[in-house]
Amino acid sequence: MRNSLKVAKWEIKRNLKNKTFLISLFVTPLLIVLFGLLGSLFGDDHSEKATVFVHDELGILTSMEAIVEQADLDLELQPTDINETDVEAELEESEDTAYMFVNETALTEGKIPVYTSNDFPNVGQLQILTQPIKSLQLQELGLTEEQMAAIAQNIDVQVQSLDDLQGDTVTEEQLAAGEDPLMKRVVPGIFAGIILLSIIFTGMMIFQSASQEKKDKIAEIILSSVTPNELMQGKIIGYFVLAMIQAAIILVFALGFALYKFNDFPLFEYLLQPQLLLFLLIAVLGYLLFASIFVGMGATMSDISTAGNFQGMIMMIPFISFFFIGPVLSDPTGALAKALTYIPFTSPTILLARLVRLDEWNWLEISISLLILVATIWLMMKLAGKIFKVGMLMYGKNATVGEIMKWLRT
Amino acid sequence: MNVLLSVEGLEKSFKDKKVLHGISFEVHSGEIMAILGPNGAGKSTTIRSIMGILMPDEGSVIFHNHKGKGIPRNKIGYLPEERGLYKDVRVMDILLYLAELKDYPLDKAKQRAMEYLKKLDLEGKEHVKMEELSKGMAQKVQFISSIIHEPELLILDEPFSGLDPVSQEVLKTEIRNLAKSGTAILLSSHQMNLVEEMCDRVFMIQRGHKVIYGTLEDVKKQYANFKCTIHGKNDISLLEKIPEVVRVEQTDDTSILYLTKDVEAPKWLKTLPDEIVINELTLDRVSLHEIFIDIATDKNLLKDSERQSLEEVGGTNA
């Protein structure tokens, strides 16, 4: 174990001094945040207010402004004396602008002429501005204040879902207080998911490291000091630490971004839940499984650029589960989701996704899945050790499937 | 001399092909022993078995009374034939890492690294990345990496390949110095002149079999016959009729006559016919290079009877 730790320490030190690794360490989270920001930059964000010029002959502009403020409309009202005939010329040179003519016709016929520029975004909100005219109409009919208030009141359809009846609906207050049970699973789930993805990607560097050591012909020198198993374990530990460093940096960026975007959201209260430990365990087990595959495969190749079909297919194994994420999330208790939970190569991702979606966890399913995963890790480490031992000393060519099988049988 | 390493009856097969057939030899403290053989003879497999990188099917490797996995690897230095170092790493970093893997104190390692970098004309290169060094310089760093931890046994597989003559001389001096200070050195090389110049004893392997084993002098005396070089225009058929001549090689006006074993050179000279034109004559024992070529190319050598006679050389000198 001492030698494994020496190898691990070396791999960490070597990579942390490597410019390419350092750049990717910070560029990856930056790219993630950048894509997040681009989404909001190019999304349908019409936070800028449109201007509505009101030609007010009825003296209701103040009431209309009150409605704009009350309903938090994206409109800015301004009085105007312009005539309807001049509107066209004005609009030709305007953006996000509307002209509204509130006059006797509007009161008697219930029709308000409105002229907008072509790109006017808030046509729907203009309808709300008609409320003061409605009040004026009611006044004309001689209704009392109380009658007018009753008529002016909206008639709402009050829908109650099963969750409402069972008291499961989360109010905004509960959400802000960190009491949403779904968020208590989703936030740690996303956190563990980022770690899992990060360690899978950084774990792929083990593969590169093993094949590079063969290419640079240093493997034999190292193996004269440590056993193949110690070298393999050292690489797995070393790249795990590097992956955690990468994950930590991604999370710092991601948390910073999340706090900036959702500043009222109690992120840490949702994150620091007991289930986070289980999610992290699943992520670490996933890493150990895939790392053993990567390190073994790396030893079968003379050069990373010469990866054959077989090696290429093996390298795809960790990503198979992502094809099933959609169906599993939409039906987390379905047969497919359950079956994939017991397949070790898909279980880390699928189990994580299911646990995030499910209100109640089936601990028997979780235990069986984890047991299968641990047993497979043990087996894969043994097999990877056999491949690594012979593969690292084979120079100049990629190992064939037949050769790998032969090494596994010895 | 102390026996530091003892290799006893190594057998190894890959798939169905047997590559080592009962290889046995010893290496003593303070000596330079050559392990020779043509490509594919089994040298690297023997060396890897000593290093514990490969496990032999039969036989044992004993180092300091330790066997197999119990052998302290940190007492052995190894420079493999297929070698290289991390390209993107600085010279001192890689040397310290390899010393650390051998459990050697880092402060001492740093001191020794500086000392050897200076000795091998690499002073000031400690912070240079390996990829910035020339091939020869990189090889010197690889050599330093194999001795940085003061090994008691140093195994060098083709240490001179790719080095210019000046660097070869520097390396030869260092290897000799290490032997003088008590380090046992097992040296594999195809450069027979260097082996002949440096080594005390020779072990030669051919197709996994031991074919020569003994001191250089005894091997040459017992295996290598005399050869007589005659400068002068002579008919080859006349030379072939001379008693005790086994083979004649002729180029232009020079003829080399290979004599039978056990011939007494002074007496034989008197038997040369008068009609032979002799402008100049030299009588030597054949070189190690010629012995090597003979063994490597002589397919019949591996016939049981001949192998037995060759092993007698080893037997008498071991």
What would you say about this model in short?
Chain B: InterPro entries: AAA+_ATPase (IPR003593), ABC_transporter-like_ATP-bd (IPR003439), ABC_transporter-like_CS (IPR017871), ABC_transporter_ATP-binding (IPR050763), DrrA1/2-like_C (IPR025302), P-loop_NTPase (IPR027417). The complex is a heterodimer of chains A (410) and B (318). Chain A has helices spanning 2-16, 19-42, 61-70, 87-92, 104-109, 123-128, 131-140, 145-152, 162-166, 172-176, 181-215, 219-223, 228-261, 267-271, 275-298, 309-323, 325-330, 335-342, 347-357, 363-391, 401-409; strands at 50-56, 75-79, 97-102, 114-116.
Give the helix/strand layout:
The complex is a heterodimer of chains A (410) and B (318).
Chain A: H1 2-16, H2 19-42, E1 50-56, H3 61-70, E2 75-79, H4 87-92, E3 97-102, H5 104-109, E4 114-116, H6 123-128, H7 131-140, H8 145-152, H9 162-166, H10 172-176, H11 181-215, H12 219-223, H13 228-261, H14 267-271, H15 275-298, H16 309-323, H17 325-330, H18 335-342, H19 347-357, H20 363-391, H21 401-409
Chain B: E1 3-14, E2 17-28, E3 32-36, H1 43-51, E4 58-63, E5 66-67, E6 76-79, H2 91-101, H3 106-119, H4 135-147, E7 153-157, H5 165-180, E8 184-188, H6 192-198, E9 201-206, E10 209-215, H7 216-222, E11 226-231, H8 236-240, E12 245-251, E13 254-259, H9 265-270, E14 280-285, H10 288-297, H11 304-317
